[in-house]
Design a protein that fits this description.
Blueprint: H1 8-42, H2 47-72, H3 76-100, H4 104-109, H5 112-124, H6 130-153, H7 163-169, H8 174-206, H9 216-233, E1 237-244, H10 247-254, H11 256-273, E2 279-284, E3 287-293, H12 297-312, E4 326-333, H13 340-356, E5 362-365, E6 371-373
Parallel strand pairs: 4-5
Antiparallel strand pairs: 1-3, 1-4, 2-3, 5-6
């Protein structure tokens, strides 16, 4: 479960959190800038203070870039990974600086800077991707292990060489350092486990419990997101509304238990026949919606015809011979509309055309250029 790729609706939730993380990162770095600036007033010649200020300003510049990228939706597939690893590496750079200025005990015994590892790991949990939590923890452990080795090579474990630092920083203790590594790894695992659990709960709130498809609210939310992405990338977007023909007869003749079995089976069929990148939802009752990203009207029609044909010749498992057929309406962005509401309205109109012209068919276009996939009506 830790290495499963988040589904689209969870990736969108994680992306919204990415913007929040970018804002918090900027606010925190702005506060951190005050510390070296204040120290420079008291001691303008301190190299540690100057480096601290430069490191914080560099981090601020990177933070601004990440914030702009998050606000504009740039590099969605990579930004979470880049920002997570950057946060951890900046902490390691802060510790490594003390080794560069021959203060290795400060690097290994620092509490304030070391605590920022936990802040970096904790922020990855907001992205709903446990892989990032584990990866950030692994990188933190590897980088801090390198810092320990470097500090030891610079004499951190030699009391006679570190005599001037022992009073302020204490002595080097290998057991303490191993405990720090263990705590970093444990923090990453706990963050990943909490993400897995919260992701499961969030997924349940976004799914229809019977069919496991997106519920109405989640589908429309994802539709708005995908429409905005399609506009940015110049891609086509196909909205499909489907309605099971005469489904009320199934409930009336066989009972609601059989009706639920039919809906559950049809929902599974939709999940299997469409890609993960295609949003599939149950809007209510026996009405379903599909959002296809990228295909033309003709390609979308061919995929829907395959579904319709398969459904027409199948029997619902676990029922007394119940068979289903489906009617559908299709609307294409931008040809038929440039908003979710417009696409839904037109697809709904074409769905009613399909029902009015005999059912068990999909209407791809309306008006003088009506394109209908036509078959003989089927009796349930």
């Amino acid at each position: 479960m830790f290495w499963l790729v988040p589904e689209p609706c969870l990736r969108e939730a994680g992306w919204r959190s990415e913007v929040a993380v970018a804002q918090v990162r900027l606010a925190l770095l702005a506060v951190l800038c005050v510390v070296p600036m204040g120290q420079l007033v008291a001691d303008p010649g301190s190299i540690e203070t100057w480096f601290g200020l430069i490191l914080t300003l560099v981090a601020m510049a990177m933070g601004v870039v990440l914030h702009v990228a998050a606000r504009h939706g740039s590099s969605r597939s990579r930004l979470g990974l880049i920002s997570s690893l950057l946060d951890v590496t900046l902490v390691s750079c802060g510790l490594a600086f003390f080794i560069l200025i021959d203060r290795p005990l400060t690097a290994t015994n620092s509490y304030i800077i070391f605590l920022f590892y936990f802040l970096a790991i904790a922020s990855t949990s907001l992205r709903f991707d446990p892989r990032l939590c584990l990866l950030s923890g692994i990188v933190a452990v590897v980088e801090y292990l390198g810092i320990i080795a470097w500090a030891v090579a610079r004499g951190a474990a030699d009391p006679s060489r570190m005599a001037d630092q022992l009073v302020d920083q204490g002595s080097f203790n290998i057991f303490t350092q191993l405990c720090r590594l263990l705590v970093l790894g444990t923090a990453a695992f706990i963050a990943a486990a909490s993400v897995v659990r919260s992701r499961e709960l969030l997924s349940r709130s976004l799914r229809d419990p019977l069919t496991c498809l997106l519920n109405r609210a989640a589908f429309f939310e994802l539709a708005h997101v995908e429409l905005a992405r399609a506009r940015r990338q110049g891609l086509g977007l196909v909205m499909v509304l489907l309605d099971l023909d005469f489904f009320k007869r199934v409930n009336d003749m066989h009972g609601h238990k059989v009706g639920d079995l039919a809906l559950e089976w049809f929902g599974g069929l939709l999940r299997d026949r469409f890609r993960e990148s295609d949003a599939v939802g149950r809007l209510g009752g026996d009405e379903f919606a599909i959002l296809l990203c990228g295909p033309t009207r003709g390609r979308a029609g061919a995929r829907l015809e395959e579904l319709r044909h398969e459904l027409e010749h199948a029997t619902v498992p676990g029922t007394p011979g119940v068979r289903l057929s489906v009617s559908g309406g299709v609307a294409l962005c931008p040809d038929d509309g440039d908003s979710v509401e417009a696409l839904i309205e037109l697809a709904d109109d074409r769905l009613y055309q399909a029902k009015g012209s005999g059912r068990n068919r999909v209407v791809l276009a309306s008006g003088p250029t009506t394109a209908v996939i036509h078959v003989s009506p089927q009796t349930i």
